[in-house]
């Protein structure tokens, strides 16, 4: 039995940007922050901004509908990720979210303890953690192989060996060198050394 083929014409038709003459013949290899949205997403956002962008859960119809739509988005995304809805947090951007997370995590770190960051990361998952070095936290850099761009888990092990590392921050997919990292393997190494992980997905 043959596998069904993805109808690329149909998929492209769902993205209004592909019908804009000025964008014709262009290919966009952007990260998530610069991606064009599909029509149904644009339609939902337009409806929300036109009809429901008020205090969510307020005691009037627009507030009730706005709250329900936010709850629906949370439930659907949590289901896609296989997590509980209370494990999901929305924020303005990865950079801002990671900054808030780093400041919260900072409370659990003591001077002399360490975190690991990579030189494969986007600034959003590296900069906020690196800035903790200004507060007496040791920042260790897990370097990529300069020939391949690969983050070798074997190179992480010596950074974890002394038991001082409390966090390993690394990307799932690097938009710097187009590398997909073995998340489960890296997380297992970090956890075995007593460290938490922050994975930029």
Textual characterization of the structure:
With 201 residues, the chain is an alpha/beta fold. It folds into 2 domains: 12-87, no CATH class; 94-200, Aspartate Aminotransferase, domain 2. Helices cover 38% and strands 13% of the residues. Strands 2-1-3-6 form a 4-stranded parallel beta sheet, with helices on one face. A two-stranded antiparallel ribbon has the order 4-5. Helix 5 links the parallel strand 1 (114-118) and strand 2 (138-142). Helix 6 (153-160) runs parallel beside helix 7. The longest helix is centred in the middle third of the chain and has 21 residues, at 61-81. The chain starts with 7 loop residues before the first helix and ends with a strand. The mean pLDDT is 91.
Short key terms for the protein model shown above:
two-stranded antiparallel sheet; 4-stranded parallel beta sheet; 201 residues; 13% strand; alpha/beta; 38% helix; 7 helices; Aspartate Aminotransferase, domain 2; single chain
């Amino acid at each position: 039995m043959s596998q069904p083929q993805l109808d690329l014409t149909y998929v492209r038709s769902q993205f209004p940007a592909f019908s804009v003459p000025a964008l014709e013949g262009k290919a966009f290899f952007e990260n998530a922050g610069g991606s064009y949205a599909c029509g149904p997403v644009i339609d939902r956002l337009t409806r929300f901004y036109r009809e429901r962008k008020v205090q969510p859960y307020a005691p009037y119809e627009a507030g009730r509908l706005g709250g329900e739509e936010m709850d629906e988005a949370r439930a659907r995304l949590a289901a896609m990720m296989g997590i509980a809805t209370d494990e999901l947090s929305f924020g303005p951007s990865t950079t801002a979210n990671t900054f808030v997370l780093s400041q919260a995590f900072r409370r659990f770190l003591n001077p002399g303890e360490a975190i690991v960051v990579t030189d494969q990361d986007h600034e959003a998952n590296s900069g906020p953690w690196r800035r903790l070095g200004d507060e007496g936290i040791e920042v260790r850099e897990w370097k990529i192989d300069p020939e391949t761009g690969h983050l070798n888990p074997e190179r992480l092990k010596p950074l974890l060996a002394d038991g001082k590392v409390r966090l390993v921050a690394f990307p799932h997919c690097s938009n710097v060198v187009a590398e997909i990292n073995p998340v489960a393997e890296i997380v297992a190494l970090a956890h075995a050394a007593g460290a938490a992980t922050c994975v930029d997905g």
